[in-house]
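Exercise 7.
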Amino acid sequence: MASDDAEVQVRPGAEGDLVALTDLYNHYVRETAVTFDTTPFTPAERRPWLLSHPVDGPHRLMVATDAASGRVLGYASSSPFRVKPAYATSVETTVYVAPDAGRRGIGTLLYQALFDALADEGLHRAYAGIAQPNAGSTRLHEKFGFRYVGTYREVGHKFGRWWDVAWHEKEL
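Solution. The predicted structure, written as tokens, is:
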């Protein structure tokens, strides 16, 4: 798979990606309201999350790397939407791209690989919560057929202010 300016490989996440994935996520924890986590993680703390995404099944982790250097450029994942059994055919999806790798089509490559992998998993819906404002994430989700279903107003408090989360859903 190729992005606009570099050859990019997309593959299932592996334990060897843990440090790079943790560093990437921690950027968003420290610098943005994209995630409502407020304290950076150590790789050991993030390991259960990584292990909860096997190479098969409805909860996947896809990683984009630079083909030449092997550097992690981003990831997309599907996780349980809610813990109660009746929610088992729904997933929550997310995508994170390295801050210096944005606007190169990496998010698109990641989501395409993720949804291709989920196609035969018997899932009914995917949901995405997007902290507002985030026009880029909204565009990406709409590109993949997500539609807006509602907003949780002032649901998160980070960096001394309140943040809304817009919820989108996609039929699978």
